[in-house]
């Protein structure tokens, strides 16, 4: 190739490039091209507590960053540490975070104090939220904590926990001619009959009594408050509450020694190794007993609905949400992240690629893929999970006690009172009368008008 | 004058740092205790409308009163055991032998472990389903109760763990004191016909008494900080059997968000510790003056 022809070819290439650029500009106007990375240069600051969901999500965040041009700085801490940080940051009107985990138990107080942005403004704007994102696809029961009295939404749930009953030794049950308990009375009987057989305890539980105990109080027709969230007068010494406390304390007599101070892990180990027969807890904990590789009771396990009380059948449930602080600097970018993180696509990826099933999108939970992955020993665990998660959204929101801002104080008093009953320090009636007085005094001290 | 100025100049940076890291937070704690500060109540941190409300409520709070009693039981029992055991060990190991010198270092291990490690070790010992203690008891056909969740044993289990952790401190202090006693005194007593018990009572004990008092004082002040053990082993339970004052303050601040009230509890604790320290210093000086 001569010098002359090389010069001519370079000129031609330049010409071609210039033509292509010109054509692109004509088809896509300049502002639209800039919008392909609409958040270029934005660093999005978010915070939550450590959870498998975020560990899995972190794998996909580079794709999101690449698509939007923003950088995501996600700060994860232990749950109590996160709650403190977020409480302090939000209540002081700070703008350090663009999105936050709206912790289930703190949701109502944050919403009531006006610390979170109304997400209806984002979902209601077609330019910000495409129709296919579909906010109504989130299971209603999981969304209840993130709504104010007028129905405005302040968070979308990324995780759901539904209380189910896991049984590890169906072989032992069958040998004794025992059926899966469906009522409190049957539960009591099965636990007592299994306890001590082959060194197996009737059931196991763990130390957070204010999570484990309320379904029994409610099962007998009681509640933690008179009528939450409107009337938060404690209702700890009603005959129904006392009955619930007595029942659960009696039930724990079939549990391993030291169960009062058991951690969740200790309880899980007791189940995995077949040393305890029944564990009633969130599906996220109970289900792995069936699915885990380390389980020694895979073949003899079942996961079913937890037993119903004589008055109500109110299995506990919870969810964790993502929201945007009222004073966040990059609200639109934060919404973009929430929209992406909770999109049907990412939710399905988490289920399909990682077996992470505790998501809150109904379309995914009811999909064939989800059902295939979550059917174990012939049981459709997804259907069970959905049934329990939805329950507080239908009719009475019986989980309202848990999201009342007064619950941490009353829950702490309840924990102490229950331990006094379970260890025989006080009869249930005396312990709960004292607890009622203490709860009222503590709430008044904290400024609650009763 | 020149010297004074130099000393003041040299001390200023340290005093500034001390003020910033110790005095300022303490002042802020006192200020906060005068408010109804709650993390989720905007403006409550600066509400001084009823400054003594928290302090007025404290005597009527049964959990606070109970926590003081639990703290007193825990402190007295653990300090007593630590001082007595530390002294006994020091007396036994105050022997000029290379092996004993080597063995002494093993006794110091619990003291140098991070408190959370100590708490985990004892959690394992007290956990019935995995504990070697329970396996041993089972082998001997003895049924042990759940130590950390039993009303009768929970506080004792904390005292045992705390004693295990801190006996080396008193052991070290007493051993150092024993090694400063001149041999002539006990030799003279032996010549006079004193037996070992009399030598201990009339010669050794008077020498080591000031060290025992100082060790006890340090441990008494430090026993208020038995937080990791309680947090990990009992969570203050069962009920409020092991709920000491600092654990109650922790629950108020971090579980129920009552920062103002929790600060008032903490200020009372601070005053009590200061009072005990000053009392012990005063007692020590009075004893010196009488001597």
* Overall number of strands of chain B: 0
Q: Tell me the quaternary state.
A: heterodimer
Q: How far apart, in Å, are the first and last alpha carbons of chain A?
A: 94 Å
The number of helical runs of chain B is: 13
Helix content of chain B: over 70%
- Succession of helices and strands of chain B: HHHHHHHHHHHHH
Which ranges of chain B are low-confidence, i.e. pLDDT below 50, for 5 or more consecutive residues?
A: none
Q: Whole-number radius of gyration of chain B?
A: 24 Å
Secondary structure tally, helices of chain A: 24
Q: Give the mean pLDDT of chain B.
A: 90
How many strands appear in the DSSP assignment of chain A?
Answer: 12
Distance between the termini of chain B: 37 Å
State the shape of chain A: globular
Query: Which range does the strand content of chain A fall in?
Result: 5-15%
Largest sheet of chain B, if any? none
Notable traits:
heterodimer, A: 450 residues, alpha/beta, two-stranded antiparallel sheet, 12 strands, globular, disordered N terminus, B: 291 residues, mainly alpha, 13 helices
């Amino acid at each position: 190739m001569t010098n002359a022809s090389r010069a001519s070819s370079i000129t031609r290439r330049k010409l071609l490039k210039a033509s292509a650029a010109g054509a692109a500009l004509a088809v896509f106007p300049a502002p639209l091209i800039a919008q392909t990375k609409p958040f270029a240069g934005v660093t999005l600051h978010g915070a939550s507590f450590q959870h498998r969901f975020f560990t899995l999500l972190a794998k996909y965040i580079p794709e999101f960053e690449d698509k939007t041009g923003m950088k995501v700085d996600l700060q994860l801490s232990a749950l109590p540490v996160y709650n403190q940080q977020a409480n302090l940051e939000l209540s002081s009107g700070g703008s350090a975070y663009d999105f936050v985990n709206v912790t289930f138990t703190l949701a109502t107080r944050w919403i009531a104090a006006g610390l979170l942005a109304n997400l209806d403004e984002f979902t209601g704007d077609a330019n910000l939220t495409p129709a296919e994102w579909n906010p109504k696809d989130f299971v209603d029961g999981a969304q209840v904590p993130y709504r104010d009295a007028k129905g405005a939404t302040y968070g979308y749930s990324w995780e759901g926990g539904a209380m189910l009953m896991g049984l590890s030794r169906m072989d032992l049950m069958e040998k004794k001619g025992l059926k899966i308990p469906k009522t409190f009375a049957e539960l009591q009987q099965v636990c007592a009959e299994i306890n001590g057989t082959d060194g197996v305890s009737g059931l196991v539980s763990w130390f957070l009594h204010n999570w484990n105990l309320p379904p029994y109080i409610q099962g007998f027709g009681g509640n933690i408050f008179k009528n939450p969230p409107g009337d938060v007068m404690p209702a700890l010494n009603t005959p129904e509450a006392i009955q619930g406390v007595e029942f659960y304390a009696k039930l724990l007599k079939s549990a391993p020694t030291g169960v009062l101070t058991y951690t969740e892990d200790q309880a899980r180990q007791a189940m995995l190794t077949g040393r305890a027969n029944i564990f009633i807890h969130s599906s996220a904990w109970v289900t792995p007993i069936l699915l885990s590789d380390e389980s020694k009771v895979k073949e003899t396990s079942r996961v079913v609905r937890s037993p119903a009380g004589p008055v109500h059948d109110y299995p506990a449930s919870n969810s964790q949400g993502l929201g945007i602080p009222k004073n966040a600097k990059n609200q639109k970018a934060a919404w973009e992240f929430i929209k992406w993180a909770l999109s049907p696509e990412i939710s399905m990826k988490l289920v399909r690629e990682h077996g992470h099933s505790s998501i809150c999108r109904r379309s995914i939970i009811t999909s064939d893929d989800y059902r295939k992955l979550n059917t174990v020993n012939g049981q459709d665990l997804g259907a069970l999970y959905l049934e329990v998660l939805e329950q507080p959204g239908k009719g009475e929101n019986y989980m309202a006690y848990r999201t009342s801002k007064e619950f941490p104080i009353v829950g702490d008093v309840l924990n102490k009172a229950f331990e006094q009953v379970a260890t025989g320090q006080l009869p249930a009636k005396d312990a709960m009368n004292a607890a009622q007085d203490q709860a009222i005094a503590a709430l008044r001290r904290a400024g609650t008008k009763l | 004058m020149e010297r004074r100025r130099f000393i003041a100049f040299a001390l200023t940076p340290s005093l500034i740092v001390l003020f910033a890291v110790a005095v300022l937070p303490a002042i802020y704690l006192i200020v906060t205790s005068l408010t109804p500060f709650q993390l989720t109540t905007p403006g409550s941190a600066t509400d001084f409308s009823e400054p003594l409300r928290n302090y007025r409520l404290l005597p009527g709070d049964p959990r606070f009163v109970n926590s003081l009693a639990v703290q007193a039981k825990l402190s007295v029992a653990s300090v007593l055991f630590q001082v007595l055991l530390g002294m006994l060990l020091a007396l036994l190991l105050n022997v000029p032998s290379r092996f004993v010198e080597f063995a002494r270092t093993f006794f110091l291990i619990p003291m140098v472990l991070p408190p959370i490690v100590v708490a985990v070790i004892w959690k394992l010992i007290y956990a019935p389903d995995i504990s070697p203690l329970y396996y041993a008891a089972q082998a001997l056909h003895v049924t042990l109760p759940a130590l950390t969740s039993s009303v009768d044993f929970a506080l004792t289990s904390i005292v045992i763990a705390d004693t295990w952790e801190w006996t080396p401190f008193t052991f070290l202090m007493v051993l150092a004191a024993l090694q400063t006693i001149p041999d002539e005194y006990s030799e003279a007593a032996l010549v006079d016909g004193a037996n070992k018990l009399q030598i201990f009572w009339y010669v050794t004990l008077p020498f080591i008494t000031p060290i025992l008092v100082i060790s006890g004082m340090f441990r008494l002040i430090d026993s208020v900080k038995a937080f990791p053990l309680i947090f990990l082993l009992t969570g203050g339970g069962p009920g409020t059997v092991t709920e000491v004052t600092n654990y109650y303050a922790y629950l108020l601040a971090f579980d129920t968000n009552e920062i103002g009230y929790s600060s008032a509890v903490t200020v009372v604790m601070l005053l009590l510790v200061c009072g005990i320290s000053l009392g012990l210093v005063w007692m020590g000086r009075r004893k010196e003056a009488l001597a």
